[in-house]
Amino acid sequence: MPAAINDAPNSDEIPDLDPDRSALFLDFDGTLVDLVDTPDGVSVPPDLSGLLDRLHAALSGRLALVSGRPIKDLDSFLPGFPGPVVGGHGAEIRVNGSTERHPFAGSDAFTDIRIRATRIAEDHPGTLLEEKATGFGVHYRRNPADQPALEQALQAIIADHDDLELHQAKMALEIKPASVNKGAATRTLMDHFSARHGIFMGDDASDEAGIEEVQSNGGFGIKIGDAPTVARHRLPDPVASRALLKRWHITLSGAETP
Which residue in 12, 20, 27, 47 is the catalytic one? Predict the structure, then answer.
């Protein structure tokens, strides 16, 4: 892995999109919308869905959402999004209305781990278990002091599953298939788009794999927030992310974004 860059250039130096060859990959939480205490408490700006639709059209369909959330959650926040959607960090991918999921979804191991993870969450007041189609997230934002104990307990329940891993997210721990990540999902979609230039925007450690993937092929990443990153560019928050998307749309279309 390349060394993390702590002082990535700011938005003034971020290039415009190429309408003929760019593909744009967007994380959701912390990138398009602000992080909140609970997964269902997100507030989606009223103009976001329309902006994404217009960018999707301006890029001839080469726009995808790449999230750790389940696809069904993204559908509820951005109903009708027309592009490919990646959920569970790449454990489920929907393209042209057809969804493929990792075999862990619906397996006996999934059922067993759900029971045990639920008990762990119940033993730690203020902790929230988020069930996904392809894994589980344990959120401890309301009780950060529980993180070490939660991590130890969750590591114990996946110890016998070489194909699973515990991923550290922002104020959450996630059990997910070890073979999936946002880099692999981005590579799959770059091939689907036949794109030559990828741009990945994300705020979390899981987004670094997607950023590395596009940058290894001549594209660039944009880190949202102040965490260490390999990205060549940085923006401070989702407000700045949405402003950049609006700038790109104006440049591509030659018209003001409503």
Answer: 27
